[in-house]
Amino acid sequence: MQSAVLTTVAATGFSVAFFHAAIPTHWLPFVLVARARGWTKGKTLAVTALAGLGHVALTSLLGLGIAWFGFQLEEKVEAFPWVAAGLLLLFSGYFGWRQLSGHGICHHHPPGGQHHPSEHCGEEAEGSHWQEELKESPLLENRTGEWSAITGLFVMLTLSPCEGFLGIYLSGVQFGWRGFWVLSGILAVATLAGMTLFTWLALLGFDRVRLKRFERYEAGLLALVFGILAVLVLAIESGHAH
To answer: Which of 4, 48, 60, 185 is deepest in the core (most CB within 10 A)?
Structure first.
């Protein structure tokens, strides 16, 4: 039973991380900077993977905090599964509110780029807002060094953790450290696979992939996922009670 449930949570986590990485904010900046600077495909993919590792590292660090807090709470609170389910429902409500209010999921913006705060995060222009925001960024200008551009991309993505995966870590607390390491591995594989895949497709000329609709409804999909995970946690607890 436990293994089957962990597999379900892991599969859900993979889907969340992969489709989160498929959003243009996670690969389009690398493609645009690479084209402006004349980078090779290999170098572009390497920089993308490097930034992806930073993205995964910060998310995993936050997940570690959630796991540790969850383990402590689980020892002291007998009804921890109910607490976890309640927190997951709060996650669901928060992302549902973001979706209904038109905010979507917010991400960090490129250094020196033009950001229009009046625009909602979820209302992207066709092809994503990054083309406009990167126009004035030093990342595209050859007057900045290569390492400055690479560092800028790395910091930009690292400081934008996959907040949607934090709820996955919470639902995995019941599986102990085994669950944490399994989910961290899933996060790394799914994120790097998504980022490098869509970067590679864009470099080959397939950068007109229509991800605008998914990007717009990401918050709503996360609300649904966390609602399902809350029900799953309660189902596990009911099964143990019987």
So the answer is: 48
Q: At what angle do helices 146-158 and 41-76 cross, to 10 degrees?
A: 30
| Mean pLDDT taken over the chain | 79
pLDDT (tens digit, 9 = 90+) per residue, 11-33?
A: 888 988 998 888 888 888 899 88
- What tokens were used for 16? 């969340």
Q: What is the C-alpha to C-alpha distance for residues 156 and 130, in angstroms, rounded to an integer?
A: 13
The CA-based angle 166-45-63, given to 5 degrees, is 15
The residue ranges of DSSP E strands in the chain, in sequence order, are: none
Instruction: Give yes or no for a contact between 86 and 189, defined as CB atoms under 8 angstroms apart.
Output: no
> To the nearest whole percent, how much of the chain has pLDDT over 90?
26
First to last CA, the chain: 13
Residues 6+ apart with CB under 8 A from 40: none
> Cα(193)–Cα(188) distance, rounded to whole angstroms?
8
Question: Among 94, 75, 89, 90, which Cα is nearest to 234's?
Answer: 89
pTM of the prediction?
0.77
Angle at 232 between CA 228 and CA 235, to 5 degrees: 140
- Map out the domains of the chain as residue ranges: 2-241
Angle at 174 between CA 169 and CA 178, to 5 degrees: 70
Q: In the chain, which stretches have pLDDT less than 70?
A: 1-2, 103-144, 207-215, 236-242
- Taken as a whole, the chain contains a residue count of 242
- 115 and 133 in contact (C-beta within 8 Å)? yes
